[in-house]
């Protein structure tokens, strides 16, 4: 049960980081592989605020969200907007270039070493039940991940902004004809995805570590969550992240010699059975 609990917590962390990519890739059809760099930025902002300026950990999170959202907004308006109608290859080349620039900048500013982060006392320790040891911080991640998933799903399905976003993605010309400011909707969506990436990166320092190679080290995990869950499905990303998190933790515990083999095997098996992902729409229908 402890392994399952740790796997769920690991999956929730994957969800918190990758759900922003699900928003931009699945809902906007933009291949933003620089998503991991935004998560790394959130981690470094949190570490600097905590270790150098003494800002409490939880107080760093709103700052991380705001700064990441503003950077995402700047990137969207200055770079990404020019490539909305470009081929996926052009989008990949641009975003991968941004990743390597971010890695080089992090090496220059912080060096290659792992960054330490001290959690507040109330997030440390464990809750011990018979057969189950629950880390308090992991429990915090699970609760926060569920709240964000519910809020995002409600926003996309039941709000005016969500309806305008879906309309802008499906048919831009019709959306513009109905008076929807498509450019503003896309800018806000990128800001939202970037804010979620930064938040996930800040929350992930304790479990994943933080160094300049973070964007490339974990990019494949973020992509797996989005693809297995189904492109554009927030709840699909949640289920996929938890499923993959449990498989990854259990595989490394019971078969540590095979490393991450289990998570890739689960991904391949899932996509063979459901190429559109667990919650993706079937293109044949």
Please provide a brief summary of the model.
By secondary structure, the protein is mostly helical.
Spell the H/E element sequence. HHHHEEHHHHHHH
CATH arch. level architecture: Orthogonal Bundle
User: So what's the CATH class?
Assistant: Mainly Alpha
Q: The biggest beta sheet, please?
A: 2 strands, antiparallel
* Count of runs of 4 or more consecutive helical residues: 11
Question: Structurally, how many domains make up the residues?
Answer: 1
Q: Roughly what fraction of the amino acids lie in strands?
A: under 5%
CATH topology call: ABC transporter involved in vitamin B12 uptake, BtuC
User: If strands are numbered along the chain, what order do they take across the biggest sheet?
Assistant: 1-2
What Rg do the Cα atoms give? 19 Å
Low-confidence stretches: none
> Shape, please?
globular
Number of strands: 2
Helix content: over 70%
Give the helix/strand class.
mainly alpha
Overview features:
single chain; about 280 residues; mainly alpha; ABC transporter involved in vitamin B12 uptake, BtuC; two-stranded antiparallel sheet; 11 helices
Description:
The protein is mainly α and 285 residues long. It has one domain (2-273): ABC transporter involved in vitamin B12 uptake, BtuC, CATH 1.10.3470. Helices cover 72% and strands 3% of the residues. It has eleven helices and two strands, in the order ααααββααααααα. The chain has helices spanning 2-27, 35-51, 57-78, 88-110, 136-158, 160-170, 172-177, 182-208, 214-229, 234-254, 261-273, and strands at residues 126-129, 132-135. A two-stranded antiparallel ribbon has the order 1-2. Helix 1 (2-27) packs parallel to helix 5 and helix 1 (2-27) crosses helix 9 (214-229). It starts with a helix and ends in a 12-residue tail after the last helix.
